[in-house]
Amino acid sequence: MQQHTHTDINLSELINKPLEESRQGEALAELPLETATIVNGRHFYIESYGCQMNFNDSEIVASILATEGYSLTNNYENADLILLNTCSIREKAEERVRSRLKTLTQMKRKKPQTLIGILGCMAERLKKSLLEQEQIVDIVIGPDSYRSLPALIAEAEGGQKAVNVLLSREETYADVNPVRLDSNGVSAFVSIMRGCDNMCSFCVVPFTRGRERSRSAYSIVAEAQNLFDRGYREVTLLGQNVDSYKWQHPETEQTTTFAQLLEMVAQISPLLRVRFSTSHPKDMTNDVLHTMAKYRNICKYIHLPVQSGSSRVLQQMNRTYDRQWYIGRIEAIRQILPGCGISTDIIAGFCTETDDDHAETLSMMEYVHYDMAYMFAYSERPGTLAARRYPDDVPDEIKNRRLQQIIALQNQHSLLRNQADVGKVFTVLVEKNSKRSDKDLCGRTDQNKMVVFPRGQYQPGDYVEVLIESCTSASLKGKALGYTYP
Ligand code: SAH
Ligand code: SF4
Ligand code: F3S
């Protein structure tokens, strides 16, 4: 493995200098959840919806509350403070939170002193009006305001409803070391940026998350190093568009690109796997692909949301690439990273989508043969460009029929892709017991495919060579041949 870097950032200096704040956060994170330090005797419960970034935000919130002396509980009935970290991406995501609030209403009747806080994207989108719509809510707090949560709690305890939905151009929570929630102790998320400047016409994220900003490369590497030192073996670098990561060193004014950041994280240890999400087809550079090729520990897997296979629809979505450009990116991946796993996101039934546009989406799927896809029916979001400009004119019935076709085709492709792996040997990073049986372990290949195999002598965190013997469209099954690193 080659070991040079394009930046002036001295890695060894970083490695010896963990985040100041991390020491505090780390100590709390290591304690059993139910019995974390009782400094103020109060417990909080947190539930997360939406994307990985939102889950990671909950870990930041947990860290902020832990330093305030709060303990975490996994049972909301024991909590003094119940937090829902919400998502607004589709109407259904919001409906789930509304129905969760109904359940909590009954609980609050029995325990009226319990405070209820709405965090995240719904809080940001609906702001104060959420307090009027949902009587039981005491606190509404947007994604850039989590540092003010203790103050808002104090306000709510005094009987006032408390709101902070200010968005920021600077906040990255760079110095907050997240408390890992629901962790397998092997893989963790690390947010490298916040917000989004892309304005895809269907998408609410730029409104709920604000302007794009990149977190200090130093703090990202320090966090990843800290995770590695604590036994973690995989980090996933998160951003709405990781390819537009750009951080300027405050003194030298040198900028770090995503390709450079990837390299810095990969250099922490060959035993630390590095993943990232999400790549944007318009911004994904060959530099990133070459960096991936150079390091064995950067996983050969790219999530490259296409959204639609029709150039006309892509233009209307304001994705700023067309079908040909996307195909060019796929060709570059195939050429620079043979065998790289590729997954995508697809929206069915966007405004004005015709049968021909839909057929182009299916043909794009045939062209790529994605390993995996997240597939959605278009859901109009208030305030977005599409909601203001275009009628949501594809009837639900047609949207759903198209979505079902997309799902059926993807199931075929996932199965074909998995069948092609049968008989091959893959390096698997063991994550945990298999859901079905604790006689089996599971973990993922470099290409992000889940593999189940009999436990033998192996443990979570081990790298194991596994021979694939069978598959479904969802996962691979095999037998362990031995440790990857003897
Ligand atoms: N930043 C990522 C996407 C984040 S949102 C990117 O640009 O690829 C995750 C996915 O939700 C999107 O890729 C899109 O497929 C889907 N999505 C977003 N808004 C939607 C909407 N209004 N209706 C249906 N699906 C939507
Ligand atoms: Fe939304 Fe587009 Fe930004 Fe992704 S890139 S978060 S789809 S606006
Ligand atoms: Fe949802 Fe907000 Fe993520 S809308 S998908 S939680 S950025």
What does this structure look like?
This protein has 486 residues and is of the alpha/beta class. It has four domains: 3-164, Rossmann fold; 184-298, Transcription Regulator spoIIAA; 300-420, Transcription Regulator spoIIAA, CATH 3.30.750; 425-483, Nucleic acid-binding proteins (OB fold (Dihydrolipoamide Acetyltransferase, E2P)), CATH 2.40.50.140. Helices cover 35% and strands 21% of the residues. The chain contains 16 helices and 21 strands. It has helices at 11-15, 20-30, 52-67, 91-110, 120-126, 129-133, 149-157, 205-209, 217-229, 258-266, 286-294, 311-316, 323-336, 355-368, 385-389, 396-419; strands at residues 43-48, 71-72, 81-86, 115-119, 139-141, 162-164, 187-191, 193-194, 213-214, 234-238, 246-248, 255-257, 273-277, 301-303, 341-348, 372-377, 425-433, 440-445, 450-454, 463-471, 476-483. The strands form six sheets. A six-stranded parallel sheet has the order 2-1-3-4-5-6, with helices on both faces. The chain is globular and about 65 Å long. 47% of the residues are buried. Residues 89-90, 202-203, 240-241, 278, 280, 305, 307, 345, 347, 376, 378-379, 381 line the site of S-adenosyl-L-homocysteine.
